[in-house]
Amino acid sequence: DVSSDIDELAATPVAVVCSGAKSILDLPATLELLESRRVPVVGYGTDELPAFYSTSSGLQIGHRVDDPQAAATAIAAHRSISGAGGMLIVQPPPADLALPATDVERWLADAMRDANVHGVVGGAVTPHLLAQLARASDGRTLRVNIGLIVANARLAGRIASVLT
Q1: What is the rounded distance in angstroms from the CA atom of residue 88 to the CA atom of residue 76?
Q2: What is the share, in percent, of the chain residues with pLDDT greater than 70?
């Protein structure tokens, strides 16, 4: 449940480095929920919420940093606020792996139709959609996902190394 995950993040003084919300989610609603729970979304080298597999979601975010020191400064400033919880540092997927948003949207719509036709519900929906995306993209979504893991871990390490 996205709402309970966001509630937990909002209450925990942690910074999470990620590539935006999964493209299978309602991105505008997810961004609105984060904002309503006082979870700042800070773009790393971007003014827009990345769409996980794609660099662009079309959703503007209000905060941007362009280097690890600026990200660490933003984290420290946020932590200095009494009662502050978590924050997200979002970065686009690596450019050489990013997929066109229109392709991902088309594959996702097809995967959702397939899930409906086959009666896939509840906790089985996400694995079904991800498998369908991997199949439709000839494995490119899996390669992006691996690239995201590496890029996000690298950025988190770079930020942590300058965080005071």
Answers
A1: 13
A2: 93
pLDDT in tens, 90-149: 999 999 999 999 999 999 999 999 999 999 999 999 899 999 999 999 999 999 999 999
Using DSSP's 3-state secondary structure scheme, residue 89 falls into strand
Q: Which amino acid is at 100?
A: P
DSSP string across 107-155: HHHHHHHHHHHTT--GGGHHHHHHHHHHHHTTTHHHHHHHHHHHHHHHH
Cα–Cα–Cα angle for 8, 147, 130, rounded to 5 degrees: 65
Alpha-carbon gap, residue 7 to 99, rounded angstroms: 30
The span from the CA of 18 to the CA of 148, in Å, is 8
Q: pTM value? A: 0.84
Any idea what DSSP says for residue 48?
B
Q: Is there a contact between 67 and 44 (Cβ–Cβ < 8 Å)? A: no
Question: 15 near 75, Cβ under 8 Å?
Answer: yes
